[in-house]
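Question (not urgent): is this output format expected?
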Amino acid sequence: MKKRYLSIILFSIFVNLQGQIIINADQFKEKLKDINNQIADSFLHNDSSVIIKYYDEKEPVCMPEYHKALYTKENIKSYYQQWLSSFKINAYKRDIYEVQLLDNYAIEIGTFNINAVNEKSPLMYDGKYLNVWKIAKDGKPTLISEIWGANKGIDGTNFASIKTKESDIPKPAVKKSLENEINKRNQRIAELVTNREGEKHADEFFIKDAIYLTYDSPMFVGLENIKPYFVEHEKPNGVSIDSISIKASRMIPINNFVIEYGYYYVDVSWDNKKGKATVTGKSTNIWKRDENGILMLYRQMVNHN
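Got this back:
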């Protein structure tokens, strides 16, 4: 009788009143380690079906490096099939850096190492990633989104390229007040980037314990490491920002957090406009309200198209 009573108590610890299984970050991290091992093994066998089966059916977001964002499961499947068919992967490893639980969502940040070869040459691909998972009542994880990028400059022509439509980019489906709030924050970022004010960019937007993951660099942990990057990255150095647009697509509000998927267009010039380029890219932004209710960047990952 005592054993039965104890088992009831233990069960109640892991199931709430709504029938939702309660999983702590360490438990979920172990589950993700197993999934990552499955994905790594499938990549070694040129099989994209494993990662595709974890993707959300209705509103998936995939943000590959050197490719436009993909917002349908069909496109994501095509991308992975094309990428894996172009390479023989000899070794693939993921290491989880952290898992953050936000209600019934989980933010997974980690690093990866890929040793592969294609018709051109060997590819050593070391980088980092940010995944967003939704946790069902039974504890089953569904991959809502992923974004990744290299730790140093890499040839983008190595990767797959499939056709996408601009109309595939979803618009925010949240309260107008929240959409406007995010848009204003993005407009302010655009101003600071245009004016090359890297220190203000870091101070005004990143919370002290933020993590920033960007192109051609390892992850930057904490404002003390993020700020020097922005100071250096946004030096004028003879480069002019002629126009910049930062737009938000899908948003997921979660209590004091907002997950936002965005994309940017930047027209730059140098040498008195003798040289010009348009840089486009996308980001996964995890906003968190500070003690004053202001949305600050808690986790952010950016990569180029």
